[in-house]
């Protein structure tokens, strides 16, 4: 870039925890960041003097916000793409590119992209309603996904038995063969405007069995080196094929034959990369800035093994958030608590995360169990 970074007005669509951590990383480069979010009390509200409350899916709102920016990026995919396309046509830089955001917004288009480019993924069929899903009962066990507006575990239902067909979405989407996987993993990869590509080491994910949210993860993943190499190569192939500028999370399954299948991708910073703040030389948030500002990409090497535990609102609690057990957790060597600044909790809302660092993997696992048992978000 020819301008100083502080002279570039950067707009982020979305002011949640990802935007908050992007701002925190951007402070090191003295970035001039503006935020658009529908919640007037969003987590980013107090971290920038340029905060606008408005609808991310409304054309005029996004367009007006973007007119005052030089460069636009996202922390959530559910945004008005047509406004971003118009802004791009008028000379604004938009990363990830609007056509990629549009692709990710539609899970059917996303799966077709995998198929068209020989990216390994689970078999799937397009369905228009619940009746179509019921007609495919021979696919059981299967996963029913909404085509659009599924986010943070919403829009995904696992159907294991015929009586669970009543859970099928009565809307357009797809069904996938349920994959009998060994592990779920993620690779975060970045590509800058000059075409440099760099990926982070593979992490191992453990999901909540009902709400399809990451409960915790380990970095690095406990997998064979050849599988790790294959997973990183797959992620790099995906971002290169997309011709995308920015940061991409690629979630994958490892199946018994040692193959990897792509599950879903997200063109932004991601929950599976939070541990990079403490655990890697460059965090995913800094890498995002490096990629869209066309800096050299940062070193992704692991400094120390880490785990990350999501802090989710406890069942049965709605109201002003309180953090039971936080002092006990803070007393543990190697723990780093990140609270997202959300005033109100509700069941399974992401309220923060804890990163744990430890060179002994068994100690790391023990600390994860203690934190899950001890630190509760209540009201």
Can you give me a brief rundown of this structure?
The chain has 379 residues and is α+β, with helices and mostly antiparallel strands. The chain is 27% helix and 29% strand. Helix 1 packs across helix 9 and helix 2 (59-67) packs parallel to helix 3.
Helix percent reads 25-40%
CATH class of the largest domain: Alpha Beta
Unreliable spans: none
CATH topology of the largest domain: D-amino Acid Aminotransferase, Chain A, domain 1
What is the 3D shape?
A: globular
Q: Give the N-terminus to C-terminus distance in angstroms.
A: 47 Å
CATH superfamily heading of the largest domain: ATP-grasp fold, B domain
* Oligomeric state of shown chains: single chain
For the sheet with most strands, the description reads: 9 strands, antiparallel
Q: Which secondary-structure class do the elements indicate?
A: alpha+beta
By CATH, the architecture of the largest domain is named 2-Layer Sandwich
């Amino acid at each position: 870039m020819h301008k100083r970074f502080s002279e570039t007005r950067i707009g982020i669509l979305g002011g949640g925890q990802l935007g908050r951590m992007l701002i925190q990383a951007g402070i090191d480069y003295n970035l001039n960041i503006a935020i658009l979010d529908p919640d007037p009390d969003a987590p980013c509200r107090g971290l920038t003097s340029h905060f606008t409350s408005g609808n991310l899916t409304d054309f005029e709102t996004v367009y007006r916000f973007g007119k005052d920016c030089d460069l636009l990026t996202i922390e959530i995919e559910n945004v008005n793409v047509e406004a971003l396309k118009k802004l791009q046509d008028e000379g604004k830089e938009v990363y990830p590119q609007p056509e990629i955001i549009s692709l990710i917004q539609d899970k059917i288009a996303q799966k077709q992209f995998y198929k068209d480019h020989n990216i390994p993924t689970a078999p799937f069929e397009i369905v228009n309603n619940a009746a179509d899903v019921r007609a495919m009962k021979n696919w059981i066990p299967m996963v029913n996904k909404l085509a659009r507006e599924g986010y943070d575990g919403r829009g995904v239902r696992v159907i294991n038995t015929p009586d669970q067909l009543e859970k099928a979405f009565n809307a357009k989407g797809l069904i996938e063969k349920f994959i009998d996987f060994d592990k779920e993993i993620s690779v975060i990869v970045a590509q800058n405007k000059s075409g440099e590509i760099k990926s982070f080491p593979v992490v191992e994910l453990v999901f909540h069995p009902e709400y399809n949210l990451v409960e915790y993860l380990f970095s690095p993943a406990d997998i064979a080196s050849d599988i790790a190499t294959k997973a990183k190569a797959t992620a790099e192939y995906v971002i290169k094929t997309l011709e995308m500028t920015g940061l991409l999370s690629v979630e994958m399954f490892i199946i018994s034959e040692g193959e990897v299948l792509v599950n879903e991708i997200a063109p932004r910073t991601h929950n599976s990369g939070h541990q990079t703040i403490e655990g890697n030389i460059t965090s995913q948030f800094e890498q995002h800035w490096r990629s869209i500002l066309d800096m050299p990409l940062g070193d992704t090497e692991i400094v120390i093994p880490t785990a990350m535990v999501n802090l989710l609102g406890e069942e049965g609690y709605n109201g002003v958030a309180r953090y039971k057990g936080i002092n006990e957790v803070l007393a543990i060597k190697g723990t780093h608590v990140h609270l997202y600044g959300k005033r109100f909790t509700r069941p399974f809302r992401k309220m923060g995360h804890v990163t744990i660092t430890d060179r002994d993997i068994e100690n790391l696992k023990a600390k994860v169990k203690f934190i899950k048992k001890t630190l509760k978000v209540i009201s």
